[in-house]
Specification:
Strand content: 15-25%
CATH architecture of the largest domain: Alpha-Beta Complex
Helix content: 25-40%
Radius of gyration: 21 Å
Number of strands: 17
Family: Belongs to the zinc-containing alcohol dehydrogenase family.
Number of domains: 2
Structural class: alpha/beta
Keywords: Metal-binding, Oxidoreductase, Zinc
Number of helices: 11
Largest sheet: 7 strands, mixed
Cofactor: Zn(2+)
Bound molecules: NADP nicotinamide-adenine-dinucleotide phosphate
CATH topology of the largest domain: Quinone Oxidoreductase, Chain A, domain 1
CATH superfamily of the largest domain: Medium-chain alcohol dehydrogenases, catalytic domain
Protein name: Alcohol dehydrogenase
InterPro entries: ADH-like_C (IPR013149), ADH-like_N (IPR013154), GroES-like_sf (IPR011032), NAD(P)-bd_dom_sf (IPR036291)
CATH class of the largest domain: Alpha Beta
Length: 392
């Protein structure tokens, strides 16, 4: 039995996708029942990924998910009701819903999926999404696993600076959705303060987030990308955030997709300092680009590589270089629960700035009915720290 459900409505508004070739519609649907092991959350602000249109309209990315579906991934929410086995969460708390859902009874390695987005790689994750946690946060309410609810320190995050708060707005907390992804990769290869990390492409939402996270972790950043204007913008934002705390910590490198030109450009930008880590989060369109190989070859002996990109096919690797230089390659999908807990602490302490002081801006917010415009704008406004959100 759920606790404290008396004040809840019986129905709510949700954006329902019934067929990938037909536009989703806002429908009045039943509020999900709160079962043991779950929480019901009131969605306050749900950030939209830049490629939402590709995933849900025609599913150009071919992501597998069950239908019908309410799209919408990680979001800032308030706890509306709790299953009877909740022990720490409280009704009314400001929380982050994390969309990476893990099977609790998995026997041989993690079985996980991205809520309302991608049902994972196993029969177990597909079943879990289809039968238990299918619907997402482009809705007034969402039912989620208890362990996917992360309490946010509301008075610290939203409180006024005069009273010891960071003065953030709820929408600005949307940045908590992008930042854990690169943190999972960078923490996974143990990026250390004082190290130098090459990040590609640094101009996209996740690459830009990687630059912010790496700086907060104390590393020097080489921001790599094809578009010099966008790179200059990224450098400008990164160097001026936090009152110039990172001035001199960011160098940009133009990506030519020409191995010898790229190697030279990286060497020059590195300024004689070794490159300790190469972090890549390329989109599928970068398949065939030579930068992955060049990035690996730019590393010092015993350098580490974090592979987080969405490249679908196989890629050529510089085997001889990797072997002779003790290079570690580490793939990473998303992040661990501990990564997310740590990342939230970094934001709450202020070591990792979000909001205006962190160079992030809320580009736009939309109601549920304007979902189409919202997805268009999210595709356009995909620069560093830019966020487009739905506030259902
Ligand atoms: N491993 C994980 O857990 C995880 C989690 C989330 C996302 N991802 C993956 O990360 C990818 C990036 O996400 P995003 O939202 O930041 O990306 P995005 O908006 O799709 O694109 C990012 C950047 O890619 C660059 N780019 C496009 N085509 C390129 C090419 N041919 N060569 C080099 N760079 C190219 C663009 O930079 P310029 O136009 O400025 O060159 C753009 O700024 C996604 O596609 C997703 O698959 C992985």
């Amino acid at each position: 039995m759920a606790s404290n459900t008396a004040a809840l409505p019986t129905t709510h508004r949700a954006l329902v996708l019934r067929d990938v070739n037909i536009d989703p519609k806002v429908e009045q649907v039943p509020v999900p029942e709160v079962l043991p092991g779950t929480a019901l959350l009131r969605v306050l602000a749900s950030p939209i990924i830049s490629y939402a249109k590709d995933v849900f309209l025609g599913n150009k990315r071919g992501y597998p998910y069950p239908l019908p579906l309410v799209p919408g991934a990680s979001a800032v929410c308030r706890v509306a009701a709790l299953g009877p086995d909740a022990t720490s969460l409280e009704i009314g708390q400001l929380v982050q819903f994390d969309c990476l859902v893990r099977a609790r009874d998995a026997q041989d390695g993690p079985k996980q999926f991205l809520s309302a987005f991608f049902d994972g790689f196993s029969a177990a994750s597909k079943k879990l999404m289809r039968d238990a946690f299918r619907d997402g946060t482009f809705a007034e309410y969402v039912r989620v696993p208890l362990e996917n609810v992360f309490v946010l320190d509301e008075s610290r995050l939203l409180g006024s600076p005069g009273s010891g708060g960071l003065g953030l707005k709820v929408e600005e907390l949307g940045e908590l959705v992008a930042l854990p992804v690169p943190f999972g990769g960078l923490n996974g290869v143990d990026l250390r303060p004082g190290e130098q990390v090459l990040i590609s492409p640094a101009t996209g939402p996740f690459g830009g987030a990687a630059c912010m996270v790496a700086l907060a972790m104390g590393a020097k950043v080489l921001a790599w990308g094809r578009d010099e204007k966008k790179l200059e913008n990224v450098q400008g934002i990164l160097e001026t955030i936090s009152h110039g705390r990172f001035r001199g910590m960011v160098n940009v490198v133009k990506l030519y997709n020409d191995p010898s030109k790229d190697a030279e450009a990286i060497k020059t930008a590195a300024g004689g300092r070794p490159i300790d880590v190469f972090f890549d989060i390329s989109p599928p369109q970068a398949a065939g680009s030579t930068h992955l190989k060049t990035g690996i070859q730019s590393l010092r002996h015993s350098g580490r590589v974090s592979l987080m990109g969405g490249l679908m096919g196989d890629v050529p690797l510089p085997h001889h270089f990797i072997m002779h230089n003790d290079i570690t390659l580490k793939g990473k999908w998303m992040y661990s629960r501990d990564d997310l807990l740590l990342l939230i602490k970094m934001v709450e302490t202020g070591i990792l700035k979000i909001g205006r002081e962190g160079g992030c801006s809320v580009a736009d917010t939309f109601g549920l009915d304007d979902w189409k415009q919202a997805w268009d704008v999210a595709e356009e406004k995909a620069g560093l720290g830019e966020k487009v959100l739905i506030k259902p």
